[in-house]
């Protein structure tokens, strides 16, 4: 009987020890990288994730710059020839391209249909000259820029309401 009690105590003790033992926690890594079989250290995984994030950021920046370089129109407010700050970076990128590749551009100034033809020709020219001045401040030579005004004669959009007039008040950059 005493031998049976010792055996029962030993079994109970083993069960208690087994119940108190810890199990391996579930993988809580949310990076999407399987860390269980790679054999990589946490530092190496972090370095690779940082490199991947940097690569994605570079691709996003390249796409943003490409979109700005694909845009070649600067829009103006009613009866305005002041360039809005939203176009500064686009024009800086175009200027860098012109300087780097020695390219020339024709700046075509336009106006909406309101105003006399003479006034609109002058307004289109002032707008194109404002863009030319900004390009020169970014290093473009005056010999690489040609300014032309179409006034109201070449609208981008036909119509007689503000939404169409806003699209016609512009300067287009056309590379030669």
What is the distance, rounded to the nearest whole angstrom, between the alpha carbons of the first and last residues? Answer: 107 Å
Fraction of residues in helix: 40-55%
Biggest beta sheet attributes: 4 strands, mixed
Low-confidence stretches: none
* SS element count, helices: 5
Question: Which radius of gyration do the C-alpha atoms yield?
Answer: 34 Å
Strand element count: 4
Structural shape = elongated
SSE succession: HHEHEHEHE
Class inferred from helices and paired strands: alpha+beta
Q: Note the beta-strand portion.
A: 5-15%
Mean pLDDT score, rounded? 88
Strand arrangement in the largest pleated sheet = 1-4-2-3
Keywords:
176 residues, alpha+beta, four-stranded mixed β-sheet, 4 strands
Short description:
With 176 residues, the protein is an alpha+beta fold.
Report on this structure.
- The protein has 176 residues and is α+β, with helices and mostly antiparallel strands.
- 51% of the residues lie in helices and 12% in strands.
- The chain contains five helices and four strands; from the N terminus they run ααβαβαβαβ.
- Strand 2, helix 4 and strand 3 form a beta-alpha-beta unit.
- The model has no long low-confidence stretch (mean pLDDT 88).
């Amino acid at each position: 009987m005493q031998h049976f009690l010792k055996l029962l105590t030993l079994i109970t003790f083993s069960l208690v020890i087994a119940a108190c033992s810890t199990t391996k926690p579930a993988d809580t890594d949310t990076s999407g990288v399987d860390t269980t079989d790679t054999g990589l250290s946490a530092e190496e995984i972090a370095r690779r994730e940082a490199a991947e994030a940097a690569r994605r950021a570079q691709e996003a920046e390249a796409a943003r710059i490409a979109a700005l370089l694909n845009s070649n129109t600067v829009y103006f407010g009613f009866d305005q020839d002041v360039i809005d700050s939203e176009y500064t970076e686009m024009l800086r990128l175009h200027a860098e391209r012109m300087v780097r590749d020695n390219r020339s551009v024709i700046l075509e100034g336009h106006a909406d249909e309101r105003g006399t033809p003479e006034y609109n020709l002058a307004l289109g020219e002032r707008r194109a000259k404002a863009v030319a001045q900004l390009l020169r401040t970014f290093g473009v030579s005056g010999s690489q820029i040609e300014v032309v005004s179409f006034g109201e004669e070449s609208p981008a959009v036909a119509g007689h309401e503000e939404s169409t007039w806003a699209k016609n008040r512009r300067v287009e950059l056309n590379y030669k």
